[in-house]
User: Fold this.
Amino acid sequence: MNRIFFICASLATVAALHFSGVLSNINLTHPIWRGNATLFGSLGGALLSALIFWACAAKPRLGRWFERFLMLGFIIALPTALISAKVFIDAAEYNRLAVNLWHKSSYAVFITFVPSMAALLAKLRIIGSGKLD
Assistant:
């Protein structure tokens, strides 16, 4: 159960970013749904983190592929959220596609960030201890 520490550390990182105002400065989420995206996306990410750690224990190869898939999802979701936010903010008229993409990708950022961060912290802990498998 020492993996719970890594999930809690990644949730603490999200909370620190949310309460420090960093998320509002970079327009990652709209002010109306910022709290919901942060809270529910992070909780979904915590559940995915537990699933990843379980998969790594049961089938290590499958777990590593799942980790890589979620990290790739984060790499795709972050620029998607930022670009669609820029398109929506700069639009002269209401752009339904941009706001829909911004909304969904802002949730996807947090859903994929928490397990990616937890997996990365777990890997760094293993590398630092000299117990590479």
About this structure: The chain has five helices and no strands. The chain has one domain: 3-128. Residues 3-128 form one domain. The longest helix spans residues 96-129.
